[in-house]
Amino acid sequence: TPERKKKLRTLLRKKAAEELKKDQEHKAEERLRVIAERCGTKADLETASTDDLKKVCQEYFDKWYGLEGEMFFLQREVILRDLQINELTISVSDMKGKFIKPTLKKVSKYENKFAKLQEKAAKFAFANQMKAK
């Protein structure tokens, strides 16, 4: 019956909304857990002495320095892999005999003619200067 279908639809919508809400909460908890794992716990900076602040800054610096080094090596690895992929695609295209035509730049015929005219004008002006002297 239509009433029963309507009731089932509303129940399904409620169930889907609850699951979506639970999923979002789970994702938020997971995100906070990962952030805490990667960054560590937040240090209490208000009540810390200068020596404690120096230690905290040194810890953060050491962590940052290590991550920067890691990032450098990862970027280098990515570049090397891109080069390997490019070489492999070239070798595969060579094996298949299908060569990718490079896109050519459009060169205007008028630019070439204009350049030649300028050269002739410069030679003519130079010749006229020489005659005038």
Number of helices: 3
Instruction: Report helical residue fraction.
Output: over 70%
Order of helices and strands: HHH
Distance between the termini: 110 Å
Provide the structure class: mainly alpha
Oligomeric state as shown: single chain
Q: Please report which band the strand proportion falls in: under 5%, 5-15%, 15-25%, 25-35%, 35-45% or over 45%.
A: under 5%
Beta-strand segment tally: 0
Low-confidence stretches: none
Summarize the structure.
The chain is an all-alpha fold and 133 residues long.
Give an overview in words.
The protein has 133 residues and is mostly helical. Helices cover 82% and strands 0% of the residues. The chain contains three helices and no strands. The mean pLDDT is 85.
Any descriptors?
mainly alpha
Topology, element by element:
Elements: H1 2-39, H2 50-96, H3 109-132
